[in-house]
Amino acid sequence: MYRLGLKTKLHPVVKLKASVPVGEFFLQQVRLVPVSAIPRSTWQGRDMVYFGQPLERSSEIPDWHANPFKPDSRGNSDKPWWLIPDFDEAVGDIKTVWEASRFDWLLAMAQRAAKGDAAELTRMNDWLQDWARHNRPYLGINWKCGQEASIRVLHLILATQILGQLDDPAPGLVALIRLHLARIAPTMGYAIGQANNHGTSEAAALFIGGSWLASLGDKDGAKWQSSGRDLLENRADALIENDGMFSQYSVNYHRMMLDTYSLCETWRRRRGLTEFSDKCLEKLVAATRWLHQMCDAKTGRAPVFGANDGARIIALTDTDYLDFRPSVQLAATLFLAQCAYAEKGLWDQPLIWLDVEPSSVPLQSPQSVTQDSGGMHILRRGNAVAYFRYPRFRFRPSQADALHCDVWIDGENILRDAGTFSYNVSPEDTAYFNGTCSHNTVEFDGRDQMPRLGRFLFGDWLKAEHVEKVTETADAVSAGAAYQDWQNASHKRHLDLETNRLVCIDEVAGFKKNAILRWRLAPGNWKLDGNTLSNGKLTITVQSSVPKCKITLTQGEESLYYLKKTSLPVLEIEIDQAATITTEIHF
Question: Are 384 and 419 members of one domain?
């Protein structure tokens, strides 16, 4: 219905018109922040950050329509946004064009301005004025996505808060926020239909932006605020499972969702707005605990389950994109009134910049657990953790990763997922990175565990069978699960995690030609001798119940950062008949 409305030009969003905001967006009077507030060092000179990685730009102000990873390619800047396709080979990955227009740079500049650097305030105004001139309202590629517009709103208002200009803002900024909310509101039905972060991000923009405009006397502000609040409550209830997992089955998108709600809660407190419902807060408590479970306390790293496309909002620290501790610390303080990490570090900076009082009550350390509504076993013993995914799909899966097992020892990811790489690349790369072959599980007959229906869609969703919830004894922590796919191939996996050993038993049957079990390894000097693989610290031994078992050490790829891929070793165990394969990892 949404697409039909655009095509026939009957959708109200296509009738929007607005003038380009003029004048300064931020005033010269700035509130100085506490001494303990440390500004980000990025977005200075020709240094910028795309998808968590540094990149040098060719000019002082970005080309808002260029793909910097594909020279001489530019997105459209003049057409009405609804006439611009999602996938254009001449442009490449549309996210590369959108990234600079998310205004991540605005936060880094605002932080430095709030520490007394007046030149940064000038840069902020210069860049925003340039953006407004080259992105006339509702024309061009940067107006195409309501979520992208929402992220701009959140960053614009957060920058205003950092500078202490919320109560008496520049008229140009108010006009810019208003024309964004007018773009977001009419397409909320489409955002809700995605059942993902689009709905939460866009609801947050309406709630925060609407309440701010209402306080400034805008006649539509209260309407947008009310709609945004209702949708935030609705999305938390609909998309967050009781055990905390978010609908996208992605650790990174879980962070984005949780950061969005954290920003809404800090805004609600600052403005003295009505508390969110108990039901909403219960879901946010569960979501916070879930991300805390996934995050390694020493490194801040987490498994790259699901889409890992570089998305990160309200980045207020110089911590690496792969460090989830700032988000966990902020959410734990807001929703649990507890401290996730007692040791002081950069992960505390969001609390300082957002004026959130820290908690001294320690959050309990993560424990072994089964999160059944989201399909996750987490096994912990000593310094080792095993994350075991199994299919409990209430929402569309984006990766064929059933029974994938991620293993971490003392903060090092020794058995790992592949990540995403890009949403708009060759069919081969797309099939690889979200397919079964890029996960630590079994691939049957050279196909994915579910049939592909499109770039992001799988059909015949798997259903878990024989789920053995996490149990602990004096000797080991154990769990298991199984499935049968649409072609009657079956895989049953059982894990036993001991203090210095992990035993994985895979029972496979029902395939026609072959089955390949893959273990994707941390890069290193691995050597294979018969059925034993070692890197000097870890030893992996494989046994099969059938004599014909081919064991090889080959090369695969991983993408820890969007649009960046590197090679890694992969242990492959291939059989041509039903069998039980036992893998032992000694560490």
Answer: yes
